[in-house]
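Hi support team,

I submitted a single chain yesterday and got back a structure, but I'm not sure I'm reading the token output correctly. Could someone confirm the output below corresponds to the sequence I sent? I've pasted both exactly as they appear in my results page.

Thanks,
R.
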Amino acid sequence: MQGYIKADAEMERAVAQVIDAFPFGGYFDPELGGHITLAQTVQRFLGPGSRILDFGAGPADKTAVLAALGYRCTAVDDLQDEWHKRGRARELILDFAEKMGIEYIQLDGGALPSAGTFDMVMLHDVLEHLHDSPRDLLNGLLERVRDGGYLFVTVPNHVNLRKRFDVLRGRTSHPQYELYYWYPGNWRGHVREYTEGDCVALAKALRLQVREVRGTHHMLCKVPRRFLRAYLAASRFVPSTRDTWSMVAQKPPGWVAKPELDDSEFRRLTGLKSWGELAH
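Hi R., thanks for writing in. Yes, this is the structure output for that exact sequence:
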């Protein structure tokens, strides 16, 4: 490790085990992609042996670090990103998950486990890709978390330091336009990125108790190496400019999902008399 993120010997061992088994060479650097800080966050709330559902796990690289640390992990994904469908990528992902002791459920046919099964459900770099509200998805996932369990999400910070500089220079804060233009099929990139206030509002709408919201670094790979130490130093003093928001919220006893607003709540929120006015 080069010292960008501190890791103890146990974490070093787990990361080394994942890198050794991971089938896609050069896919990630654990110090630049958030793998270590993500696992450290889980460790602050849950001990080894706890059951974790990782929704939108992709190649299960982050899930695997937790599995190597002794957590019982279930990964869920539709594996429909363009690169998942090319060559043997999907087969290699599933083989890797099995080797790491991860149960992998594909959304095109597999059923999610029953209610109250997990100690934590986590979604990392998932919510920003959704074209619709995450309300139904998250309420459904929370039903599978025990009372007192946790929701752990990480999302890109829409106003991080790198993007502020880009906007000041007249550049976009959105994904590269050519990637958007040439993407085959339905767009799978970022639709809505988050701020700290968005994270808190999400937890409130889900009727969860916020335990932690903090700025962290999960996408340092996007910063040129020659600027990395300066970037880290600048963002250390203003955590709200870091590239990612990390939120852990707890499910209270007797939790009941709120599927929609009633008419009076809707009018108070929007100032509209009815949903129909949204069309005008």
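A quick pointer for reading it: DSSP finds ten helices and seven strands in the chain. Let us know if anything else looks off.

Best,
Support desk
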